[in-house]
Amino acid sequence: MNVHDNISDTDVVLAASDSLSGMRVGGPPEVAAIMARGRARRNRRLSAAAGLSVAAAAAVTAVTLGLTAGSGPAPALGTIRTAAFTLASNSNGTATLTINPTELLDSAALQSDLAKYGIPAKVTTGSLCISDPVPAGFSQVVSSSPAGPSTATPQAVAKPTITIDPAALPAGTELSVGNFQLSSGQQQADFLLIDSSSYTCSSTPPDPNSLPGGYGPNDGIGLLYGGPGPGGS
Question: What are the extents of the domains in the chain?
C-alpha cells in the first residue's frame, strides 16, 4: 500500500488553504490614489486640447494676416445710383449727392441711403420740417454746387449737387430735406438742420428766393431744378 493512499480529499483542501494563506494579496486601491490617477489623465487631456487651440488660433492669425497684408485702407462705401439721384462716398468721410433733374426725387430711398452713409435725415416730399430755435452749424455740414439761397437766389441748374459731412453734424440734430414739385414744372429741394426731438413740418413750399422763417442765410440751402430752363429735359 502506498503511503499516500490514506490521504483524504479533506487533507488536500486543508493543505491548499494553508498554502494560500501564506501568500500576500493586495487590498483594494485607496481612494486617494484613484483620484490622483484621474486628475493626471484629465490634465493630460486638457494640455492636449490647449495645444490644439493654440495651434488653431495661430493658423487663423496667419490666414488673416495673409489676407490683409498689403490690402491698404478699408475701401469706401462706394456709390449708390438710382434714377433720381446718385450718392457717392468720398475718401475724407463726406458724401456727395447729385440730383437728376428729370426725375422726381424718391424721398424714402434717399432717406434710407443717407442713413447707410451715417447721415441721419428726415426726407419728405410735399413738406419740409423745421425747428425753432434753428440749430447752428449748417454751413459746416452741407455745401452745394451751384450755391443755394445761402449766398444767392436759386437758379435752375442741370444737376444740383451737395456735399454732406456727417462728422460735422451737431449732436442731437439731423438733416431735413423737403422736396416740392412746383406748378412751373420745376422741383425745389430745401436742405436744413433740425433738432431731432423738436420739429414741425409744413406742406407750404418755402419762398424759392429765401429759407423758411427763422432760418438765416447760412442756415440752409434751397435748390431749384428741372422744368423749363437749363435744368429741363
Answer: 25-72, 79-225
